[in-house]
Every structure is written in structure tokens, then in C-alpha cells.
Design goal:
About 50% of the residues lie in helices and about 15% in strands. With about 210 residues, the protein is α/β, with parallel strands linked by helices. Homotrimer.
Length: about 210
């Protein structure tokens, strides 16, 4: 098990930064760290993603685990790892990306939906799979697939909020990926980083009750 997966199983939350402007990025990341969330992914379709990844690795050191999201193919994976990504998350399964992760020692957590895809990712060497799109599939789906596939760690991405986060863990997720519910861009752009910290604390508190 990778150090990042261990960290995820302890902390249970990955914050997703998508389309954040570079000028706000550092303060937003610091706000989440202050609230107790240290695993963060910057999606590769965010402008300047690799620059931010490199900078955060330098700025936050061991305090944070910084990864790349929306890693669709091998080229993107190489770019993200070169920037210093400590883990790679995808919305899709590309075995060449999983293989690259195994060779470079960078965990790859691919996005899958069906039981066939889940097992395929696992057999390809993924230590964890991301069930996506969770908001559309719903909690019942997660509960059902966990029954036969309980040995495979699953990260649930989409649809998580304060009132249902514990339900995701009860359904068998080992962690959740959260975007706009955590990184509220209106707050970010208006400089209300204190609200980000407060929201992060509430999610951390809810996740730690299990």
C-alpha cells in the first residue's frame, strides 16, 4: 500500500481544485490545510496546473499530499509526475497510465463505473479505484458493488455534502473526492478564505466520527 493510500484511509478526503485561478490557489490550499485537509488534487484541465503542483510541493512540503486530477492519458501522466505529483487521479481507466504509475512509484487511482471496469483496474495494478460519477450513480449503487468487491478500496467522487458524507463511508468508500462543496469559488474570489477553513473543519469533523 502506498503512503498516499494510507494517508487517504486516515484522512478520508481529497480536495479537488478545478479551474482555480493561479492568483488564489496558494491561499485556498493553505485555507484547507488550516482546516485539516491535506490531500489535494489539481485537475490537469486547470490552466497552469503543473506550475501550481510544482509550487505547492515546494511550498507545503510534507504537510500536504499533492496530486493531479483529470489525468486522461500517458502524456498527461508524464507531465503531472514531472511536475511533482504524488498521486494521479483519472475519470477513466487507461491501463498504460496505471502501468506508468507502477513503474515510477506514483499511485494511480483510475475512474471506473462498472464491476467489470473495477476488476480490470485492480488486475492492471491500481491499488484503489475512483467510482465515478457517484452523484449520478447514488449511494445504493456503491453499497451493491461493495458487497462482491469488498477487497478493492474505493474512492467515491461526486455528490458528497455535509449531510451525507458519513453515508458514503457506511456504504463502503474508503475516501471521498470533493470539489465545489469544499473549494467554493465564490468565496475564493471574494477572499473569504476563512469560510473555506471553516467548511473544511466541518467535513473533517464529520469524516472523523466513523
Amino acid at each position: 500500500m502506498s503512503q498516499m493510500l494510507e494517508r487517504l484511509q486516515q484522512e478520508k478526503i481529497v480536495a479537488i481544485f478545478r479551474f482555480i485561478e493561479d492568483q488564489y490557489a496558494d491561499q485556498a490550499a493553505q485555507a484547507l490545510l488550516d482546516g485539516g485537509i491535506s490531500l489535494m488534487e489539481i485537475t490537469m484541465n486547470t490552466e497552469g496546473a503543473t506550475t501550481m503542483i510544482s509550487r505547492w510541493r515546494e511550498k507545503f512540503g510534507d504537510q500536504a499530499g499533492i496530486g493531479a486530477g483529470t489525468v486522461l492519458d500517458l502524456d498527461m501522466a508524464k507531465e503531472a509526475v514531472a511536475a511533482g505529483s504524488q498521486f494521479l487521479i483519472s475519470p477513466n481507466l487507461d491501463e498504460s497510465v496505471v502501468d506508468y504509475g507502477l513503474k515510477t512509484g506514483v499511485p494511480v487511482w483510475p475512474g471506473v463505473m462498472t464491476p467489470t471496469e473495477i476488476v480490470r483496474a485492480w488486475k492492471a495494478g491500481a491499488e484503489l479505484v475512483k467510482i465515478f460519477p457517484m452523484a449520478s450513480l447514488g449511494l445504493k449503487y456503491l453499497t451493491e458493488i461493495r458487497a462482491p468487491l469488498d477487497k478493492i478500496p474505493m474512492l467515491a467522487s461526486g455528490g458528497v455534502d455535509l449531510d451525507n458524507i458519513t453515508d458514503y463511508f457506511k456504504a463502503g468508500a474508503c475516501g471521498v473526492g470533493m470539489g465545489s462543496k469544499l473549494v467554493n469559488m465564490d468565496w475564493v474570489r471574494s477572499g473569504r478564505f476563512d469560510l473555506l477553513t471553516e467548511r473544511a473543519r466541518k467535513f473533517v469533523e464529520a469524516a472523523s466520527t466513523l
